[in-house]
Amino acid sequence: MTTVLASPQQATPARPRGARHLLAPIGVALLAAVAAGALYQVFVGTTLGQRVDTVAMRGADVHHPRVVEVLERTLNGTSLASMVLVCLFAAVFGMLRRRLDLALGAALLVVGANVTTQLMKTQLGRPDLDGFAMPNSFPSGHTTAAASVAFAVVLVLPQALRGMVALVGFAYVSVIAIATVWAEWHRPSDTVAALAVTAAWGAVAVFLIRVRRWNAPGGTQPPSRLVTLPLLTIGAVTGAAGLVGLAAVTMSERSMPDLVSGRFAFLTGSAAIAAATAAVFLVWVRLAAGDRLVTETPLEPAKPALQKSGVPAPAGRRVKGGTK
């Protein structure tokens, strides 16, 4: 009696994550730390840098009622209580998703970024090189608080919601950062440095999360173009405007102080802030992307068993097999 044994069904094992997946956050953290240090050296440690930074802050003579209302409401709404509530939401949501690693990563991000910012503000010196006596304000605490909370919320949310929340967070952080310059609380370099500090701690948190999930199959889902394209567009436009404006303001402060107006310098600083915010959110939506689950490959259909006559069994009919 002729019989055929059915071949066992086996799933193709998922490939392990590559070293790039684990090392990318470390690279981002190092670059962000270097950027913060370079900003301090240029815009705090040099006379020209301080003058360019200060003229951008003092040129914020905005009198449009609607603009002033938005800036004032945004600054007044950024309180410690609101930050704590959002952090609690991030922690609880991470726990509800049964992702303790995301909840802990969000907490590390918020605490680490804000503590680092406060230590830098108190420990770093600011020589009076521009004749505008003012205590050290590098980096911005308001901007760090807003950016770290926005990053934390994006991190704990499901992948389907992260894109929309990232765009809202980008708009909110941009307004906060520009509003602190408009209120003459901070210079543009203070806010950009705060973004760099937040990005560094966010990358550290993602690195620890990826270490914990190193053996999980798959990688990360790339962010949707509906998120990346607006950020890329805004970042490119404001970045170009900021670079051209910065060159003009620098030339003016070096040789012809009355070449550009204070409002032009403020708009230049605002463009640079918007570009930096778009850049860090672009990086963050990629670092914080959700896990891409690897499904098993379709199983190969078992070869049809042969009947006694050698004719294949009809489709859908179960044929007994085995040995006697």
From TrEMBL:
Q: Which UniProt keywords apply?
A: Membrane, Transmembrane, Transmembrane helix
InterPro entries (alphabetical): PAP2/HPO (IPR000326), PAP2/HPO_sf (IPR036938)
Segments passing through the bilayer: 22-43, 75-95, 102-120, 140-157, 164-185, 191-209, 229-252, 264-285
The keyword Transmembrane appears for this protein: yes
Question: Which stretches make up the Phosphatidic acid phosphatase type 2/haloperoxidase domain?
Answer: 103-206
Q: Does the keyword Hydrolase apply?
A: no
Entry superkingdom: Bacteria
Q: Which CDD domains does the entry link to?
A: PAP2_like
Q: What is this protein called?
A: Membrane-associated phospholipid phosphatase
Please name the source species. Answer: Paractinoplanes abujensis
